[in-house]
Write a structure and sequence with these properties.
Layout lengths: L3 H13 L9 H4 L2 H7 L5 H32 L5 H50 L8 H43 L1 H49 L1 H6 L3 H53 L5 H18 L2 H22 L21 E9 L6 E10 L4 E5 L6 H8 L7 E6 L2 E2 L5 H7 E4 L10 H6 L7 H10 L3 H7 L17 H14 L4 E5 L7 H14 L4 E6 L10 E6 L2 E6 L1 H6 L3 H5 L9 H5 L1
Helix pairs in contact: 3-11, 4-5, 4-6, 4-10, 5-6, 6-7, 6-10, 6-11, 7-9, 7-10, 7-11, 9-10, 9-11, 15-17, 17-18
Bound molecules: adenosine-5'-triphosphate (ATP).
Adenosine-5'-triphosphate binds next to helix 12.
Length: 611
């Protein structure tokens, strides 16, 4: 037994390595938009360049209209051609500049946004891979978070970040030029731009906030309902519940459509109001300018330049109300995204490449305590367990006793909250999860069979395995004969979604073949015979045990079959080891094991005394 001091030190070491991000960091989740923008920080230079190029594009567009206005108005007075040559060249230059800079701006900002998006997707995926608590999300909803909500970051970075900054830079410059031409006109334009570029977007954002907030969740609901209905179709049909499930999908779809309609209405209102503000402002500038021309304060040519420049200036702010109307939806998508990213990983990051010691690996578990949340009861409460190289042990217990939790820890899907798990004397939490899984592998409770060929399903465990390796492993798992007799395409046989074309026993043997191909040193068989009929169960179990000959094997089971073949048995009840010994020892003593075999308590003095 390891002393408390050592356990505490191990726990302390792990706490030191705990990730900084936690689900309970309210100030971070409160500001999803800012946090989404912060995701783009590594590409900050590219985005800044994008803003400059965007400002250059809009500036060139506005300049083009202004210079064209000057050119047309001046040409009407029939000046010598040389007086127009600079303006003609400027028009061409501005036209070319606008096209080239628009192209470069799109290239730079899209490149930066897509790279950022790729980073975010990898981070979300890594968090999913490392987080067992992620199971609190439903699978369809998770897909929606990974795809749609991550895409919202792109929306924000491309449409919500660059255009407002461009509007500030280019809008400011245009107002300065117009004010220099005719101050009252310039100020009027500034007021119009503020109305169209600030007040209207704020109004659109307020209108879009409510529906937007619910949109991402509604998309997640639709996705979950669809996935549930598709995966559960056979059961839904069998229980006559398909119609209800389809109605749930229809309801989710109708809700999303209603929100999309409302979204479109807000967008339409925004762009209509934007066009109205632009029209009224340009008319007002024109009327003010005409009066000024009549008063002799302003020339006719500057008036033409002023009015067309004002008209062009609204192109800068016209996309902003639509972006603002989307902010609510983007914010809620961001909240959902950070919900995933902030989930405390069940496995701490492996900051080393350290390999576990080579050679036979003894498994040593001391004082292992695990729970699924600070308020949850302990799923494992001080488990001690030893598996010497080449031995076979069984962990036996009733449903809910913590057996699968133990398997999760051994596969490094979860880390211990307290206590240590050592492989060959090395604490597994000091090593990357992949490295641990190189040593510990096996048959999980519900092995996933991919909708692919038998060969591809097997090579998942060892991509470089050739057909001879695959057949050898199939022989060892006693699946080769079945493949030869029932699968005419042999290793090229398509096994169907979730291995639908295989029997339950074949699926377990396939999972075992996969595990054997990985050449683990510790083989964990987690309830390998659940859902099998008794005959198949016994046959599969015999084959599994025969195939595991020579491996350090840990059989996790609630079943009493074949336990006499195990070297030792640990009985776990409510997360604690209540009995430990060989089959014969445990049958001889009073306790859970005898009861499970339907035997009465042994006579006073114990069976051993009698034997
Ligand atoms: N993801 C989870 N979140 C919260 N509690 C969990 C989770 N998984 C398991 N538990 C709880 O932990 C305890 C141990 O569960 P575990 O699945 O390890 O038991 P088990 O012995 O493998 O049961 P079974 O044989 O039914 O699979 C149970 O009380 C269970 O409710």
């Amino acid at each position: 037994m390891v002393g408390t001091g050592r356990r505490d030190r191990a726990h302390q070491r792990r706490s030191d390595r705990s990730p900084a991000v936690s689900s309970s960091s309210p100030n971070r989740t409160d500001r999803p938009l800012l946090r989404m923008v912060a995701l783009a920080r590594p590409r900050g230079t590219r985005f800044a360049l994008g803003v400059l190029l965007g400002a250059l594009t809009t500036g060139a567009g506005v300049g083009l209209l202004g210079v064209s206005a000057w050119l047309l108005a001046t040409a009407a007075t029939h000046p010598p051609l040389t007086a127009l040559s600079v303006a003609v060249v400027a028009t061409r230059a501005l036209g070319v500049t606008r096209g080239v800079s628009r192209y470069l701006e799109r290239l730079v900002t899209h490149d930066a946004a897509f790279r950022t998006l790729a980073d975010v997707r990898v981070r979300v995926y890594e968090r999913l891979a490392r987080s067992e608590p992620i199971r609190r999300f439903r699978s369809g909803d998770l897909v929606s978070r990974l795809v749609n909500d991550t895409d919202s970051a792109q929306d924000l970075l491309l449409r919500g970040l660059t255009p407002p900054l461009v509007a500030v830079v280019a809008g400011g410059a245009v107002v300065a030029v117009c004010t220099a031409l005719f101050a009252p006109g310039g100020l009027l334009l500034a007021a119009g731009l503020l109305l169209g570029g600030l007040a209207l977007p704020l109004f659109a954002a307020a209108l879009g906030r409510g529906p937007g907030r619910r949109q991402a969740a509604a998309r997640g609901e639709l996705s979950s309902a669809l996935v549930d209905t598709l995966y559960g179709a056979p059961d839904l049909v069998a229980y006559g519940a398909m119609e209800r499930a389809v109605r749930r999908v229809e309801r989710a779809d109708a809700e999303l459509t209603r929100m999309a309609r409302r979204d479109a209405a807000v967008l339409g209102l925004g762009s209509g109001a934007s066009a109205l503000v632009a029209g009224v402002t340009v008319w007002a500038v024109l009327l003010l300018g005409v009066a000024a021309v009549a008063d002799g304060v302003l020339g006719a040519i500057p008036l033409a330049v002023l009015v067309l420049t004002a008209l062009a200036a609204f192109e800068i702010v016209s996309p902003l109300p639509a972006v603002a109307a989307r902010l609510g939806a983007i914010r809620s998508a961001g909240t959902r995204l950070f919900d995933v990213l902030d989930t405390e990983p069940a496995v701490r990051g492996a900051d080393t490449e350290r390999r576990l010691p080579d050679g036979a690996a003894a498994l040593r578990v001391r004082g292992l305590r695990v729970r699924y949340g600070p308020e949850e009861p302990w799923a494992l409460d001080g488990v001690d367990l030893d598996l010497a190289p080449g031995r076979r042990i069984a962990v036996l217990g009733p449903s809910g006793s913590g057996k699968s939790t133990l398997a999760s820890v051994l596969f490094r899907f979860r880390d211990p909250d307290e206590g240590t798990v050592e492989l060959g004397g090395a604490d597994i939490t000091d090593h990357p999860a992949d490295e641990v899984r190189r040593i510990v592998s096996g048959v999980p409770q519900d092995p996933h069979i991919f909708a692919s060929t038998l060969r591809e399903n097997l090579r998942l465990a060892r991509p470089d395995a050739d057909d001879a390796d695959l057949w050898a492993a199939l022989e060892r798992a006693r699946l080769a004969e079945d493949v030869r007799t029932t699968m005419p395409d042999g290793l090229d046989t398509e096994v169907g979604a979730h291995g639908a074309r295989l029997s339950g026993g074949m699926r377990r043997r396939l999972a075992l073949t996969r595990a054997l191909l990985a050449h683990p040193r510790v083989l964990v068989l987690d309830e390998p015979t659940t859902h099998l009929d008794p005959d198949t169960r016994d046959a599969v179990l015999d084959d599994l045990l025969a195939a595991s000959e020579g491996y350090s094997t840990l059989l996790i089971t609630h079943d009493l079959a074949r336990l006499e073949q195990m070297d030792e048995i640990y009985v776990i009840v409510d997360g604690r080891v209540v009995q430990h010994g060989s089959h014969a020892d445990l049958l001889a003593e009073k306790g859970w094991y005898r009861g499970a075999h339907g035997l009465p308590d042994p006579p006073r003095g114990g069976l051993r005394a009698v034997r």
